Amino acid sequence: MDGRPVFLQTCTGDRNHMITSHSNPKIKQIAQWQARAGERRSAGIFLAEGFKMFQEAPEEWIREVYVSEEVPDREDLPPDMRKKLAATGFETVASGVFRKMSDTQSPQGILCVLERPRYSLEELLGQTGAPLFLVAENLQDPGNLGTIVRTGEGAGVTGIILGAGTVDVYNPKVIRATMGSVYRVPVVCVEDLCGTVDVLRGNGVRIYAAHLEGKQYYDSFSFRRGTAFLIGNEGNGLSRELAAKADCYLKIPMEGRVESLNAAVTASILMYEAHRQRRGKE
Predict the structure, then answer these.
(1) Do 53 and 112 meet the contact criterion of CB atoms below 8 Å apart?
(2) Tens of pLDDT along 34-83?
(3) Is the distance from CB of 91 to CB of 16 less than 8 angstroms?
(4) What is the C-alpha separation between 243 and 237, in angstroms, rounded?
(5) CA distance linking residue 90 with residue 7, whole number of Å
(6) What Cα–Cα distance (Å) separates residue 72 from each residue in 56, 78, 82, 118?
(7) Coil, strand or helix: which one is 111?
(8) What is the reported pLDDT for 281?
(9) Per-residue model confidence as pLDDT tens digits over 193-249
(10) What angle do CA 246, 188, 195 make, to 5 degrees?
(11) What is the pLDDT of residue 282?
(12) How far from 96 is each of 20, 69, 107, 122, 223, CA to CA, in Å?
């Protein structure tokens, strides 16, 4: 045994076995996973809510599925959704209990427990082509991180690297903000960002920092070769130690009295500039 929980085989929605109590051990466990990053980490799982998140989830990742009592009778459930529910199995939960176990104000009535994927920096660096990484330090806003993951998929990033001080990528609010991209974008969490940047450079990746001391605009650089963008904390930016690891500082043009942009906006601009260049556009 590796210390991870043993997941029970879910049933197929028999109402005689509906979960109706808030004190049910499974409901209490879900509540703990919703609230505590450490509990999710030690269990090796994350939670995803909503029909889109369930539909896009890799079936082999799914460990448990819970649906609100009205869901099995919905006439608007598409056939592929019903087929997937039949394949994964599910447990039916009384509506009031489901609202308590949900992390959303208006739950859609479906929640799944998924096994966390495992990615390594070595695997990502071993892929063919010029890698493109986004390295985030001390991001605190779940919406920012979720947006970065979603935009990263759109821009074709190789992977996203997160330092220990950044919000948990498996925070339920981050998961929602990714809108499914968390299933497809490799995310690597590391303790030593500075050391990781050294590894990237040693593998031919050029390091760029979005920084207020940047003298050249971002679109004056070429990102066609191996590239990593460093993005710092929403309020304080990059630490001096990590910023010093950059090969180049760059800046984004600002009009009016704006000094800086939101971290997710900055990351999106840079990732899409790299994407534009790699598509061969002038």
Answers:
(1) yes
(2) 999 999 999 999 999 999 999 999 999 999 999 999 998 888 899 999 99
(3) no
(4) 9
(5) 12
(6) 19, 12, 8, 33
(7) strand
(8) 57
(9) 999 999 999 999 999 998 878 789 999 999 999 999 999 998 889 999 999 999 999
(10) 40
(11) 52
(12) 8, 10, 11, 46, 52
pLDDT for position 260: 75
Q: How far is 280 from 104, CA to CA, in rounded Å?
A: 42
Distances (CA, A) of 38 to 35, 41, 228: 9, 5, 29
Amino acid identity for residue 26 in this structure:
K
Whether 227 and 134 have beta carbons less than 8 Å apart is answered as: no
For the segment 94-117, the average pLDDT, to the nearest whole number, is 95
pLDDT digits (tens, 9 = 90+) for 109-147: 999 999 999 999 999 999 989 999 999 999 999 999 999
Separation between Cα atoms, residue 235 and residue 251, nearest integer Å: 17
Contact 260, 269 (CB under 8 A): no
pTM: 0.90
Identity of the residue numbered 165: G
The residue written with tokens 């800046």 in the block is 251
| Whole-number pLDDT of residue 48 | 98
62-68/110-115 β-pairing? antiparallel
| Pair type for strands 227-231 and 132-136 | parallel
- Please name which of 255, 250, 258, 260 lies closest in space to residue 228, comparing C-alpha atoms: 250
Contacts of 191 (CB under 8 A, 6+ apart): 163, 164
Sign of the dihedral defined by the CA atoms of residues 9, 10, 16, 22, in that order: positive
Cα of 185 vs its chain's centroid, Å: 8
| Token digits of residue 243 | 């910023």
